[in-house]
Design goal:
Number of helices: 8
Radius of gyration: 20 Å
Number of strands: 15
Strand order of the largest sheet: 5-9-4-1-2-3-10
Helix content: 25-40%
Oligomer: single chain
Structural class: alpha/beta
């Protein structure tokens, strides 16, 4: 079986989500990688070095500069004539493109895949409270994979060839207006080894920044938030951890003032060590926490930060 991997990138650098996707794709067959972007030769060079990738397809065109799904999907569909499966990371970008590809191919799309065994795919359901094994009989497979469920392929060791492919161009169905992206020197959530997340109990944006960020800086950690904190306007959307946010599995996850709603637990319960700080001893977060501290976060967090 030949497999096409959709490379996650920002036209300048390859994102870590691609590495786990390559590992998952290798369970299906020979792996080729697609870099669709603008001025993305550097990304293609990076992809060619990934262990396990045998060929890189580079579609370099202004139409793919922002990886609009309406433009990228037709390109992939044309390329799928030579492939048995498309594997994309379960990121916002991958989840946007893969369903469109599946629809155009008229096949079932498998989302958030966590395990692969031949034609059987393990994926979460009911917000991760249950796992389902799904069998696909489609001639062409289209799936997104949860990066936290697969080991990351080595960034070096590969020597894939790079082949330019013709762009399908702008389909005229959508246009890029703008993006508001929070810039930070802290580690990206999906690749951070330590994450400190805050919840609605922090009460406001000022408290979030004054309590969570100093602790994260001391630990060299990424900063996350619950959906409630994001909805309340404490932090931007890209901080959100959970079923409708980012799925993470760091070495250490510190949940501060987070009750532990199902949708949040679905995004972080695979973390190696979970530390919860909450004044409510009956909060659901304590059911998954390895270490729980019941108390006032406004006293505990500053004291913890000071002692580090």
């Amino acid at each position: 079986m030949s497999v096409l991997v959709l490379v996650e990138h920002d036209n300048a650098t390859l994102k870590d989500a691609t590495l786990a996707t390559v590992t998952a794709a290798a369970k299906l067959g020979e792996v080729h990688a697609l870099v669709a972007g603008q001025g993305a030769q550097g990304v293609a060079d990076e992809a060619a070095k990934i262990a396990g990738v045998t060929k890189v397809l580079l579609a370099d065109d202004a139409a793919y500069g922002h990886q609009l799904a309406e433009n990228v999907a037709p390109l992939i569909v044309e390329l799928m004539a030579n492939y048995d499966a498309l594997v994309a990371p379960a990121t916002a970008n991958g989840k946007n493109i893969a369903p469109r590809v599946a629809a155009l191919l008229d096949v079932m799309q498998l989302s958030e895949v966590m395990g692969i065994d031949g034609d059987q795919f393990l994926r979460p359901t009911y917000a991760g409270n249950a796992l389902a094994t799904v069998t696909s009989s489609d001639a062409k497979k289209v799936l997104t994979v949860r990066g936290t469920a697969f080991a990351k392929a080595e960034k070096t060791g590969g020597s894939a060839t790079i082949e330019a492919v013709s762009a399908k161009g702008d389909q005229g169905l959508s246009s890029f207006v703008g993006a508001e992206i929070a810039k930070s020197e802290r580690p990206e959530l999906t690749s951070a080894k330590i994450i400190v997340s805050g919840g609605r109990a922090l009460q406001n944006s000022e408290n979030f920044h004054s309590l969570i960020e100093p602790l994260a800086d001391k630990l060299g950690a990424g900063v996350g938030a619950s959906r409630a904190a994001v909805d309340a306007g404490y932090v931007p959307n890209d901080y959100q951890v959970g079923q409708t946010g980012k799925i993470v599995a760091p070495e250490v996850y510190i949940a501060v003032g987070i009750s532990g709603a199902i949708q949040h637990l679905a995004g972080m319960k695979d973390s190696k060590t979970i530390i919860a700080i909450n004044k409510d001893e009956d909060a659901p977060i304590f059911q998954v926490a390895d270490i729980g501290l019941v108390g006032d976060l406004f006293k505990i967090v500053p004291e913890l930060t000071e002692k580090l």
